[in-house]
Amino acid sequence: PVGVYRDIRDENGNYIPETFAHMAYQHFVTGSQYQVFNYNLPEGVAFKLDPQYGIDQNSHYLNYTNDTTYGEVYANLHMVLLSEIEHVAEILQLGETNLQLPPQEVTTVNKTVWIEDEFGEPITVIQLMSHAHLNNESFSVYRRNQNDPGVRELIYLALDWEHPPIHQYDPPLEFGIDEGIEMEAVYNNETNEMIEFGFLSTDEMMFLFGIYYTNETVGVDRTDQGLPGQFSISAPYPNPFNPSTTIEYSLPKGNAVNITVYDLMGNKVRTLIDDDKAAGTWSILWDSKNESGVSVAAGIYFFNIRTNHFYYTKKAVLLK
Fold first, then answer.
1. Cα separation values, 38 from 34, 80, 81, 159, 277, Å
2. What digits encode the pLDDT tens for the residues 132-181?
3. Using CA atoms, how far apart are residues 41 and 46, in angstroms rounded to an integer?
4. How far is 111 from 180, CA to CA, in rounded Å?
5. What is the DSSP string of the chain?
6. Which of these, 3, 28, 52, 264, has the minimum number of CB atoms within 10 Å of its CB?
7. What is the spatial distance between Cα 215 and Cα 86, in angstroms, rounded to a whole number?
8. What is the pLDDT of residues 250-287, one digit of tens each?
9. Is-above-0.85 flag for pTM?
10. pLDDT value at 12 more than 90
11. Is the pLDDT of residue 129 over 70?
12. In whole angstroms, what is the distance from residue 194 CA to residue 202 CA?
């Protein structure tokens, strides 16, 4: 809305919980320091816009003048029929939030993500783009192999934190189940203070964004095997509720599942499940108690449901 600014810190430098509560239920799709940014997907590949989500154009600007600057932000979407799609594209988001950069030192941070652990199946990468802040000197990405530690193939390099390249792979990069993606970022902290992960320009970040898809084909019917044809989540029932409510979810194949309850301020209330589940239809009950077994107050609560490839949020109202 016009005139609404979602600052993450107040005038005293303290984080604003309400802003982070709002961000907790967003699913990142795209971001870039460039004024114009396009996704170019191969034929037969497209993103799926879930009907439970809207689009939040969260733009950031630096105005160094003494005058108010006016502008517009556009998002142009090209829609295609499901019959034209073979694979659904997913957003790749890998990173490291445990950043501690000592003062007056150059620090190299490495993190390797194995395909088997993160995705559970081979993936095909279409696009990569790094994201860091002003202390970053370089951001490298390597292909690794669990069976051959000597394999370290450079597949991405950014030497300008402010304008990292958006690398489009044609042909796409195919990663096997025994391979991995290693991120290596070099930071030069020339200040006299420790720099850690954070959302301000004086903090630091280490993220790798991109586009990928799996070998799963859109529209494959598995109902004849007695299994759900696609991933789905039901609304909490009953809703409003007192004292308990149930969520049902369906998995077309085995997957890691995490369902966590948060309050309206974004504070974690309770983790209901964080485990691997086989394909099938499952349900889980929340008895309106927190991790300590204490009944929570009446109010609005959010259920964050995560799997390896999906992220959903459901809302429920507890009455007392």
1. 10, 16, 20, 21, 36
2. 999 999 999 999 999 998 889 999 999 999 889 889 898 899 999 999 99
3. 7
4. 10
5. -TT----SB-TTS-B-HHHHHHHTT-------SSSS----PPTTEEE---TT------------SSS--------------GGG-SEEEEEEEEE----EE-TTEEEEEEEEEEHHHHTSS-EEEEEEEEE--TTEEEEEEEEEETT-TT-EEEEEEES-TTS---EEEEEEEEE-TTEEEEEEEEEEE-SSS-EEB-SSTTSB--EEEEEEEESPPTT---GGGTS-SS-EEPPPBSSSBSS-EEEEEEESS-EEEEEEEEETTS-EEEEEEEEEE-SEEEEEEE-SB-TTSPBPPSEEEEEEEE-SS-EEEEEEEE--
6. 3
7. 9
8. 887 788 899 999 988 778 899 999 998 888 888 899 99
9. no
10. no
11. yes
12. 11
| Type of residue at 217 | T
User: In this predicted model, what pLDDT tens digit does every residue of 84-110 receive, in sequence order?
Assistant: 888 889 888 899 989 999 999 999 999
